[in-house]
Amino acid sequence: MTQTSGIGLYLHIPFCDRLCHYCDFVKTAWHEPADQMAYLRALSDRLLEFLRFWDSYSPSLPIRFDTLFFGGGTPSVFTDAYAPLFEILRPYLAPGAEITLEANPEHMQADRLKIWRDLGFNRLSLGVQSFDAAGLSFLTRTHTAAAALESVQLARESFRNLNIDLIYAWPGQTRKSWQRDLELALSLDLGHLSLYSLTFEGRTPLARRVQRGVLDPLADELQEQFYQDARLMLASKGWVHEEVSNWAKPGFETRHNALYWNGGSYLGIGAGAHSYLEQLGPWGLRFHQGPHWKSFARSRPEVAPLSLQALLAGSEYEIEQDRDAQSWLLEHVSSGLRTARGINLAAICAKTGYSWAPNHVIKMALEMGQLSLDAQHQCRLNSDEWYRETRWALEMALSFVAENSAEKPLSF
């Protein structure tokens, strides 16, 4: 381990008042107060286990969390119930840490906002999803457009750093209605916007409707046009396009999500939470917890902090085995090419021992200006192509070759 800075902490809260038909995250609307308290105690216990492990693993370099993110589910179902977690975390939070709470518009009340702020939250992310009545109905949201606008205005009185989520490309949406959503969002004095194209994931109700043939997604061409509309409109207003789905006013770039995009370390605790610790192993260590929140909430014997592997032993966790240079390369290129930061070819080659030998597609992209490469070996994909980052990531990854076989590209 070389350093502890840049570590983020994600805490997953699975509880919701009701379930939205598009959501594929670990969540439940069937819970009692006893379930909630057991789950929150389990969060505290698992957090303490990890902190004990780290203290024994590296006593001379104590861990510091630069970011803390409560996601879900609907974390705004709780207010002062988070106080015990903050008591544990305060000695481990870096000065000026970004501390985010995901919230629903219906939970925006002055007393709740004050409790969150007093606990230490300094960033709020509101799941508005749409200002269009038809969109809210299709997405099974319970708030109205007027209530969403009112909730944002109320939240702005307590939180200067405020994000809202919007979902686009829902069936029936038009470019005009999407542009109206964007214009409304831009009028609200926000710091950050997350704009997600609707996907039909797993066994969500919307995905099952698509599988049965009773619902048709919007054409790919129209979905891409919505993305381009957002990209151009926000650029014209001076917003920073951080990542394919994220925009910020200068100074309000998200620090926690940037860890995911840039290969930084983060610890995830809670049902379904994922972790990546770049300090552990040559290619970092990835692991995740099982998706069953009731299993997570059950008490378990205290674990002696001998090793992280001992800490993660058991069916509750799954460790990604056999990580190697190729797996690290593909995930690094995949996340980096859809950001304004891009990827550094020299740094990748130095870490992996590969050479960069651009294939025909990458050479053409450089000639046509779809990709740029500067004197510091930083390679960036034009933001109008980020929507197709999967294709570009594969072509870029295939342009790295092993030193002992310069003629043969890597295989994925």
Topology overview:
Layout: E1 7-13, H1 33-57, E2 65-72, H2 83-89, E3 93-103, H3 110-119, E4 123-129, H4 133-138, H5 145-156, E5 161-168, H6 175-186, E6 192-197, H7 205-211, H8 220-236, E7 240-243, E8 246-248, H9 256-262, E9 266-269, E10 274-277, E11 285-289, H10 293-297, H11 308-311, E12 317-319, H12 325-336, E13 343-344, H13 345-352, E14 354-356, H14 360-368, E15 371-373, E16 378-381, H15 389-397, E17 400-402
Parallel strand pairs: 1-2, 1-9, 2-3, 3-4, 4-5, 5-6
Antiparallel strand pairs: 6-8, 7-8, 10-11, 11-12, 13-16, 14-17, 15-16
Helix pairs in contact: 6-8, 12-15
Walk me through the structure.
With 412 residues, this protein is of the alpha/beta class. It contains 15 helices and 17 strands. The chain has helices spanning 33-57, 83-89, 110-119, 133-138, 145-156, 175-186, 205-211, 220-236, 256-262, 293-297, 308-311, 325-336, 345-352, 360-368, 389-397; strands at 7-13, 65-72, 93-103, 123-129, 161-168, 192-197, 240-243, 246-248, 266-269, 274-277, 285-289, 317-319, 343-344, 354-356, 371-373, 378-381, 400-402. The strands form four sheets. A nine-stranded mixed β-sheet has the order 7-8-6-5-4-3-2-1-9, sandwiched between helices. A three-stranded antiparallel β-sheet has the order 10-11-12, with no helix packed on it. The longest helix has 25 residues, at 33-57. The chain is globular. The model is unreliable at 1-5 (pLDDT under 50).
